[in-house]
Amino acid sequence: MDILFWSGGKDSWLALYFYRQEYPETDLRLLTTYEKSTNVVPHQQIEISHIRKQASNLGLSLIMVPLPTNCPNEVYLKEIEQKLAEQDESVRYLIFGDWHLQDIRQWREKTFGEMGYECIFPIWEKSIHDLLPVLKLQPVKVEISAVQEKYKSLIKVGETFNQSLVVQLRHLPEEIDPMGENGEFHTKVIFKELDKNG
């Protein structure tokens, strides 16, 4: 069994897509951390009810990890380790949607490696020209769900993340990663089935 760290945004979706290209039959579960006082995934600002609908739509089990507000790193890791240990099958890989931040990848590999888990990164350093068509051709739409304060005049919550927006971002004078990799913005994946069913 493998576990995908699922934020509900485009990076998680892309990681799932490319992971399934290589491991189409492997038992997979999603893991989402969220703020228990608000029932919201911090950073992404996605309600946990939407995450549940995503997991249901995908037909995948969801491991939910409630965390305190402004959760210290040691508490985060303790709660994650406990949830992983509780699984009824042994865990082979932990899967992450990191794209190119080397320090984040190294931290994950070191930290979770010390717990005895191997990490894989299905979209690592892929060309954005390989990633964007996946979002376009799959039965989902991607919306901006949160924006850093200093970029709110340039990127709006609710607007669609697509090729057109990426082109706009690349022509701005401000340095904004086209995938929001540095936290400039976050996204929410919306399945078309979710729209139909509310």
From TrEMBL:
It comes from Fodinibius salicampi. Residues 3-190 form the Diphthamide synthase domain. InterPro entries: Diphthami_syn_dom, Rossmann-like_a/b/a_fold. This is Diphthamide synthase domain-containing protein.
